[in-house]
Amino acid sequence: MSMKRSPNQTETSLTNVAVITTSNAENPTFASLGASLVEIQKMKGVLGYIMRGTVSAVLDLAEGDKITQYAFLSYQLHESCLEIAKQLNISEIESALVEGKSLKVLFVKVGENKISVFMEKSSDHLGILKRLLI
Amino acid sequence: MTQASSSTSSSTPLQTVLDEFRNISPEITKAFVFKKDGESLAFNEDSMAKDRAKRLAEAFDELENNSEVIGGVENLTIQGVSSQIDITTTNSRYMATVSSRLADEKRVRALTFVIVPTIIKLMDQIEPSIPENQPPDASNSETKMEEEIIQQPEEPKQTEPLSNPTPMPSEQNLPKPPVNQFMVEKIAGLLVAPDMVRVDADVVAKWVDIYGDREISQVNVETLEGRSVICKFRTVREADSKAKGIIQIPERILQTLRASEGKLVIVKPVIPAAREGKR
Q: How far is CA B236 from CA B56, B184, B190, B209, B239, in A?
């Protein structure tokens, strides 16, 4: 379930899905990716996702009580990848995969939109990556 | 191929492995192993500047610090437009490879996330135990088994005057015990001593060549996980000696090591002290 209200207003929902927006400006890529993520969320082993655009964000996580931890990880993943890529002279990041002991996270950058998809280790992250990059 | 300028004795096997990366997967353009402070342990092509390696390690650690929700970070793969970075960490050392996106991903991942971490772990297990050439108490004739996951700190040795005026070689002058890696074969049966392993006769002959008149009656068997046991040994029977590279271990010792058939173990002879060897 998602909610949207007036422009320049930040809103969150206590349900699993939340949309945070500060503008009503149309962003077709963001909307299209959001639709893809809704489908990806239904895939086996996918626990949820966080997408951050320039002025909007959307998240859907099965474990609502861990939203903060997932959000920190999502942010740090992007920051760490930028730093590591810089030190190794890689100019632009397309995607990243971090594998933990229990779960893994796929990070994808599409334009200015940064997406983190959290999933079980057995999940098909390559299939998800393809869906997001189409 | 450039050699690690700050190479330490522990980096040599790593350097050899990294040098081979080019042969195994030519698409790997860079490979580094470095410490948290940025010191390079091994690299191919060019070394990474210390401050850059340090920042890279810090960025990885920052990610690690925020990754409790996924059970910590084991591996990280970053894909750029045409290049890919793979990073992992093992025992406070970091391994990073940069490869072309055209590279066989499975091969690159195996090299980065499996081969090098395994070698680092293996080196860590072998190296601290080599200088520890502590003889067991030879007066204790019973088999001594002990788990020594954490090495005990050495106590300063007491030098006792020898009654024999002939100078004996000190422990420091002895060659380091050779380290052999064997695959475990489980043995059982009525005639099998539960506290004795069986080692390849050729290997035992080499020990005799190295240590001469010192009677070697015990070996240290250590798993890759760090569990070890000191026990008696004998050579493999002639009839059983077809398989080289095998150590035959009875069930009781396998249980102590928490190992099973087919696992790799490291075997070193336990060298008795000079005067005890003469008894």
A: 50, 13, 16, 18, 8
H/E stretch holding B81: none
Does residue B149 form part of some domain? Answer: no
pLDDT digits (tens, 9 = 90+) for B260-272: 888 888 888 888 7
Give the structural domain span for B48.
9-127
**pTM of the predicted protein model:** 0.57
Task: Kindly indicate whether the ipTM for this predicted assembly is greater than 0.95, answering yes or no.
Answer: no
Domain boundaries, chain A: 17-133
With beta carbons less than 8 A apart as the criterion, state whether B75 and B88 touch: yes
Q: Tell me the pLDDT tens digit for each residue of A76-129.
A: 999 999 999 999 888 889 999 999 988 999 999 998 899 999 999 999 999 999
Task: Give the Cα separation of B14 and B23 in Å (integer).
Answer: 15
Determine the CATH number of domain A17-133.
3.30.450.30
Contact B63 A77 (CB under 8 A): yes
Q: Determine contact, residues B247/B259, Cβ cutoff 8 Å.
A: no
- Which residues on A lie below 8 Å from B83 (Cβ)? 90
* Together in a domain, B19 and B111: yes
Whether residue A93 and residue B78 make contact (CB cut-off 8 A), yes or no, is: yes
